[in-house]
Amino acid sequence: MDHSAAQLQRLAIAPEQLQDHQIHLTSDQQHYLCDVLRLGHGDRFIAMNGQGQLWVAELQPDARFARRLKALGEQTELAMPMMLLAAPPKGNHFDQVVRSVTELGVSYIVPLISQRTLLKPSSNRIQRWQRIATEAAEQSHRQIIPKVLDPASFEKTVMQDDQGDWQRYICTVEPSAPNFLHCLSQALDQESQSGVAVMVGPEGGWTETETQQAQTAGYQAVSLGQRTLRAVTANYMAVSIAIAQIELHTAYPGGKVCTKKSP
């Protein structure tokens, strides 16, 4: 992507908004572009469909429309998907979790309802989290907008076997659990994976039964370190470890990976 295009504001659009070379803007998008950003006829922005495609677009005299000018080619996504399955903490703390893990690169966010989960998300809250993910994807120059899935019970989730040959982990405070960084690094070194899924528990942690259920279902219990983390912090820690390891082990051709030179 050329430097001038990199400076343009990004706007997520639904696939049905694009018809031939014309983008039909919603009233909210018109307000954002024209009233908030102060763009007008002839000004350009980047339209992204959240599925990997981006275009330079130009506002038309009628602000309800923008014209698609050219496609952009760039690669900012991980080489494999990463799923965060997290028990939302009470209050609005999960808003920032959604925002931050979207910036880091997750593909899916699953709100888990465990025995100690205090927050039971409503459909309105799920929609809010999806909007936050969309805004964070625009800001962080993502090509894909992560999907915030409907809340799922812990038991139902671990019993589903729809993640194929993904590497699956459950973060625990168990002193005997191996370190997540070490386990994932070894797994990515040895095998070709389809993705990485990480479970992070609520304040108060998982129950012993939940940890056993997850392990029986194929999740490996891992530790995030010797310190006890708040639930919000644990989400950031787990996702950061996973994405750093994925990027290190699956660099795209031409991608830059720092390695220590042999003496």
Describe the structure.
The chain has 263 residues and is α/β, with parallel strands linked by helices. The chain has 2 domains: 70 residues, Ribosomal Protein L25, Chain P, CATH 2.40.240.20; 168 residues, SPOUT methyltransferase, trefoil knot domain (Alpha/beta knot), CATH 3.40.1280. Helix content is 33%, strand content 22%. The strands form 2 sheets. Strands 7, 8, 9, 10, 11, 12 and 13 form a 7-stranded parallel sheet that branches. A 6-stranded mixed sheet has the order 1-4-5-6-3-2. Helix 3 runs parallel beside helix 4 and helix 6 runs parallel beside helix 8. The longest helix is centred in the C-terminal third of the chain and has 19 residues.
Can you give keywords for this protein?
alpha/beta, disordered C terminus, Ribosomal Protein L25, Chain P, 8 helices, 6-stranded mixed sheet, Alpha/beta knot, 33% helix
